[in-house]
Write a structure and sequence with these properties.
Blueprint lengths: L1 H16 L3 H21 L2 H9 L8 H36 L5 H5 L2 H21 L13 H28 L2 H19 L1 E2 L12 E5 L4 E6 L1 H11 L2 E4 L6 E2 L4 E6 L6 H10 E3 L10 H14 L7 H18 L2 E2 L3 E3 L5 E4 L5 H16 L3 H17 L6 H16 L2
Parallel strand pairs: 4-10
Antiparallel strand pairs: 1-8, 2-6, 3-5, 3-7, 4-6, 9-10
InterPro entries: DUF2254_membrane
Pfam families: DUF2254 (PF10011)
Protein name: DUF2254 domain-containing protein
Length: 409
């Protein structure tokens, strides 16, 4: 059971964020809808209803087939064209911004729902097509279901018109940057807590080091399971690297305090509570959002694109993220009900995250006056928001780089 839960936890994000997730669910819904509508069509009440409303009856089975095939072929064309537009948008985003932001675009619910509605209409029409019978009485032609299909087709057409406008807006740099920014802020509000002084490490206590059982990116752990394991066995866990670190199988991953030996059952329980997989899910690690926006800015400043305005948009988005990060961070320790530390994890400091994101952008754009002005505006706002003056030295050092570069103009 634990293995199954770990598999679900590991693959849940990939499945839910897949471009096929909502279309698959909607297609199943439309299949069930077609079955229900056929039951209504061929029920006694449905037959009586069609007999009372003569205009609602399709007397000719061939006419019904023609309607269904025409609708299916037309909606298939809309689907192919819409998928092509999505692929073009993703390709443009990958070439001009960053491959890492593709996941935020693929996860877009509206375009998944539209594509799902198209596919559902196709499934609905094809299923109805298989039920048409050549019987002289029109009550055996699913007329009610077919008229509903016509209504769905009209909805598809209006969705397609809106979809054209929506996709053109989606590919804009400011739209992509705003989406990553909003996802990161939502993730920080979910995972972060007010920053406190760092806890004391377990340097004086004996420990056993547990190696990584697999190669991959460390994405976090199941807090409930690992905490329960620590409480039951009177253990303390210290994870040696921050989230997003790539571990090679066999390298040191975790220090375990409170035990003299590692049993196979204990190691298995620990490994089942820890996640290693590829990707950069912002909802699990908000710091991915910082780095993705930094990559967008760096890509915009590359010689092949040379778009400093987009880089400034990313800097402005990063300013808001760092404003929240000033006083909040991932918890570096987790305590039990007795206020005892049971899990300790490495959390990058504000300075480390700031330098990782801002200095690469500065390296590419230090000769651009537009970029310097964007950084100066960012520093001015962060200085105002840093009311506890904990990051004054960091901001002054970065400001010195800006003024030195400006003096050379």
């Amino acid at each position: 059971m634990k293995v199954v839960l770990k598999w679900v936890r590991k693959h849940y994000t990939k499945v839910v964020s897949s471009i096929a997730f909502y279309p698959a669910i909607i297609a199943v819904f439309f299949l069930l809808l077609s079955i229900v509508m056929l039951q209504v069509d061929f029920s006694d009440a449905g037959k009586d209803f069609k007999q009372q409303l003569s205009w609602l009856s399709l007397k000719d089975a061939s006419t019904a087939r023609s309607i269904l095939t025409t609708v299916a072929a037309g909606v298939i064309s809309l689907t192919v064209f819409s998928f092509s537009m999505v692929m073009i948008v993703l390709n443009q985003a990958a070439s001009q911004m960053s491959n890492r932001i593709l996941s935020s675009m693929i996860e877009n619910r509206f375009q998944q729902i539209v594509l799902g509605f198209y596919i559902g209409t196709i499934v609905y029409s094809l299923f109805l097509l298989s039920t048409i019978r050549d019987i002289s009485s029109g009550i055996y032609v699913p007329a009610i279901s077919i008229y509903l299909l016509i209504l769905l087709t009209i909805v598809d057409i209006f969705l397609f018109i809106y979809f054209l406008d929506y996709v053109t807006q989606t590919v804009k740099f400011e739209t992509v940057i705003r989406r990553v920014q909003q996802q990161t802020i939502a993730a920080m509000m979910k995972h972060f807590c007010p920053e406190t002084s760092k806890a004391t490490a377990y340097s004086e206590e004996p420990f056993i080091t547990l190696p990584a059982n697999d190669s991959g990116y460390y994405q976090g752990f199941d807090t409930h399971k690992l905490s329960d394991l620590a409480n039951r066995r009177k253990l303390c866990f210290e994870i040696l690297q921050p989230k997003g670190t790539y571990f090679v199988q066999g390298t040191d991953f975790m220090n375990i305090f409170g035990t003299a030996a590692l049993t196979d059952d204990l190691k298995k329980d620990i490994y089942l509570s820890v996640d290693f997989f590829s990707g950069q899910p912002i909802d699990q690690n908000p710091e991915y959002g910082f780095r993705q926006l930094a990559e967008v800015a760096i890509k915009a400043l590359s010689p092949g694109i040379n778009d400093p305005a987009t880089a400034v948009l990313s800097i402005n988005a990063l300013t808001e993220l760092f404003a929240y990060r000033l006083d909040n961070c991932l918890p570096d320790v987790i305590k039990n009900d007795q206020s005892e530390i049971i899990i300790r994890q490495v959390v990058p400091t504000f300075a480390e995250l700031f330098e990782d994101c801002m200095y690469p952008i500065w390296a590419y754009g230090k000769n651009d006056r537009y970029i310097r002005n964007g950084f100066l505006h960012m520093l001015d706002q962060l200085k105002q928001l840093d009311r506890k003056k904990r990051h004054t030295d960091l901001l002054k050092r970065f400001h010195a780089h800006l003024t030195d570069a400006g003096a050379g103009d």
